[in-house]
Amino acid sequence: MSLAIPERVLLGPGPSDVPARVLEALGRPTIGHLDPVFLQLMDAIRGKLQQVFQTRNEMTLAISGTGSAGMETMIANLVEPGDRFLVGVNGVFGGRMADTAERCGAVVEKIEIPWGRVFTKEQIIEAVDAFKPDHVALVHAETSTGAHQPLEGIGAAVRERGALLLVDCVTSLGGAPVLIDEWAIDAAYSGTQKCLSCPPGLSPVTFSPRAMEKLDGRKSKVQSWYLDLTMLRNYWGDSRAYHHTAPINMLYALDESLDIVLEEGLDPRFARHRSMHKLLRDGLAELGINYVSQEGHGLPMLNAVSIPDSTDDAEVRKALLADYGIEIGAGLGAFKGKAWRIGLMGHSATRRNVELVLSALKHILSA
Does residue 255 contact residue 192 with C-beta atoms inside 8 Å? Predict the structure, then answer.
């Protein structure tokens, strides 16, 4: 018997609700991954990703795999054994970058601050001057804490000191400004299932010319064959050399989701996310629910909030799902059992969804 899949309102940390247009795109005829029409589609996707990343980087593409594959692509290609890797850890995903860099043989140094806080530019520069890294890695939008890390001025300072700036943009891309060129970011990755409102399965990445020089100057092979950009760029580039069978229908979906993003316009889209965030924040305040992220540095698309005292975390989330069809996220790591994560990402960031989750929470908590 086939499994009955329920309809949900996806207000967790991802995936987000997927527009009908994107789901319909998944059903287009599957063609070969070297078909001339599909190769044209790859070029179109590159151009649209460049617009959303706000970059002119030629090496901008969609990796076949979820956001974690994008993280490994970035680190495995740029980090060689013995490289010095400085990473800011203020939640789960900074820790994951540190772990991945260690697996690639890097000498890893962590700068850590309490979860929910963000780093100042001065803290980063001080750590760079002390450690003298080859790479500096930061999480722009820490999904585990809802913290929105400022990046202005950091990339330029890192470049002056001869290092590359690597950034996790999984939750921010398409929901808040990601200015790759203006902020002097050398490599970044994201995921399709957050503010792009495409099903999970692809990871947009972008690499600056400085990053590609580092790749071309490697003394050892890239640790991962599947994620090796020295081969992947020949597939996404002019030579179209076979590397792997691309997830063709997922790329149809990404192309459609990028069209939706660009039709709305980046600035109006960012404004919509901020507006829905404010509406949710005001409503939660009336329920006595506060944010766990640093004041003034909360993500508009990922709201990490404290669980009220004497409230059963799992029972509330269970009631939301069973009685209202609403999914929100539990806390991770240091925030496990202490925070909920309410996502307002892409297609999910609507007034209807905000008012629905506020009404449902009010009813459940009062009961």
Answer: no
User: Domain 9-14+266-366 - what CATH class?
Assistant: alpha beta
Question: Percentage of the chain with pLDDT > 90?
Answer: 95
Indicate the pairing of strand 187-189 with strand 141-142. Answer: unpaired
DSSP-derived letter for residue 131 is H
**Contact partners, residue 3, CB within 8 Å, separation at least 6:** none
Rounded CA gap, 361 and 60, in Å?
41
Mean pLDDT of 47-54: 98
Which residue, chain included where needed, has tokens 């203006």? 182
CATH 3.90.1150.10 residue ranges for the chain? 9-14+266-366
- In the chain, ranges of CATH 3.40.640.10 domains: 20-262
Alpha carbon distances (Å) from 255 to 14, 105, 261, 306:
19, 36, 10, 37
User: What is the pTM assigned to this prediction?
Assistant: 0.96
Q: Mean pLDDT for the chain?
A: 97
